[in-house]
Amino acid sequence: MKFIMVILLALSMVLSNSPATYAEDKPTGLEPLPQVRGEGAYLIDVQSGQTLFSKNPNEQLAPASTTKIMTGLLAFERGNLNDIVTVSSTMLNSKLVYGTQVYLEPGEKMSLQDLLYAMLLNSANDAAVTVAEHIGGDVQSFVDLMNQRALEIGATQTHFVNPSGLTEKGHVTTAHDLALIARVAYQNPLFAQYVRTKSHGISRSKPDLPTQMVNENKLLWQDSDVDGIKTGYTSAAENCLVASMTKDGRQLIGVILKSPGREIYTDMQNLFDYGYTNYADKILKPAGSVLSTVMVNNEPVDLKIDRPIYLTQNLADQTPSSLTLKVIPSAGKLTTIKEGQEVAQMEVYDGSTLLDTLTLKAARTIIPQPPIKSSNPNYLSWLVGITLTGVLFLVLFRRKIDAERRSRRRILLTRRRESN
Q1: Nearest CA to 191 among 164, 227, 221?
Q2: First vs last Cα of the chain: how many Å apart?
Q3: Which residue has the higher pLDDT, 79 or 11?
Q4: Distance CA 65, CA 125 (A)
Q5: CA distance 387 to 384
Q6: Cα dist. 179→49, 254, 265, 284, 386 in Å?
Q7: pLDDT at position 377, please?
């Protein structure tokens, strides 16, 4: 009896200690929310544009040298890498040029290509100012271009005061805005090439000046999947980092602002681990999908996208995500259209957040045909013309004969009266 009681007690203990995880519906192996020590943080899926993680995403903070992402983007969009730039006397302005430098001297000549390597890899503030003067004409005009481009991207809480990121009142961004700017910048192939470069030598006209530019992004050296983007530090901004990782066909961009120490790299790695483990991309609409039609000369023409629309799904969430697609038609009525012509735009929304804007292109060509001119004579018109001419001739001829007859009668009557 005691033996049976022991067996029953043992079974009871086994059953009561069954792991609770077996009853959970959520998939196992998912990463918990990362603990980021920075004041602001953001993680974005580049393909879909959707947010995977955020911490104080709209808090305005100093960006330090991550500012140079925008400076570089404008240089690649507006400049010619082969341009030879003459360094100005602005280099002597210690209020505008200080901190990390490659020690450019007034009158020194350097290609725009090398200036950008110095700025994006070595984070040289003097190179940033020289780039700004070359592209914008002067620093203030270039800063105006920076703020204009930020608004175009949707970074509405960002305001730049200088091209380098040195501390100035009113020079602010947010983790959310910086992620948007980095996403757009990385879509420029030249920008992407530069920020994933580990080191690069530049040409200098004088000896004993820095020539080997080394990328300050430590993750780039530690993880082969990391492919950019930019670091930053000032005493006011503390440690800042924008980083990109591409793995398993997906690209993520992370932002951490105002982090107290070197743990910023560990926190960024944790952000990436969280994004790759907890989320997956699927193609919502493949490239070539027909998403709208337009009428051209009373004929329907399909409008297609030339790149896919992605949807990022949280693997722990059983409720499927959805996106809203909105067509922005072109103004005016189309009378001709060519295959591949950009006709309208497609905006992709996640709730009220604009994620992406794609171009809709015509699937075929329609050109109005000119009126067909017949090479055969119009016999009916010719016949009608001849008939009318004949009738008119007969009428006139008949009138002439009648007039002559009346004239003869008058003459005869006159002669008869005279003979009587």
Answers
A1: 227
A2: 178
A3: 79
A4: 8
A5: 5
A6: 10, 7, 17, 23, 83
A7: 52
Active-site entry in 54, 123, 244, 259: 123
Among 48, 54, 55, 68, the one annotated catalytic:
68
Contact 87, 108 (CB under 8 A): yes
- Residue 89 near residue 166, CB atoms below 8 Å: no
**Which residues, in sequence order, are CB contacts of 416 under 8 Å at separation 6+?**
none
**Coil, helix or strand for 152?**
helix
Across the strands, what pairs with 353? 350
Query: What CA–CA distance (Å, rounded) separates 158 from 323?
Result: 26
pTM above 0.85, yes or no: no
Euclidean distance between CA atoms 120 and 198, whole angstroms: 11
309-326 pLDDT, tens digit each: 999 999 887 677 789 999
User: pLDDT tens for residues 70-108?
Assistant: 999 999 999 999 999 999 999 999 989 999 999 999 999
User: Active site includes 65?
Assistant: yes
104: nearest Cα among 119, 328, 391: 119
Give the C-alpha distances (Å, rounded to integers) separating 342 from 260, 360, 363, 365.
Answer: 48, 6, 10, 12
Q: What single DSSP character describes residue 138?
A: S
- In the chain the domains, ranked by start, together with CATH numbers, are 40-279 (3.40.710.10), 286-362 (2.60.410.10)
Let me know: does 173 contact 158? Beta carbons within 8 Å: yes
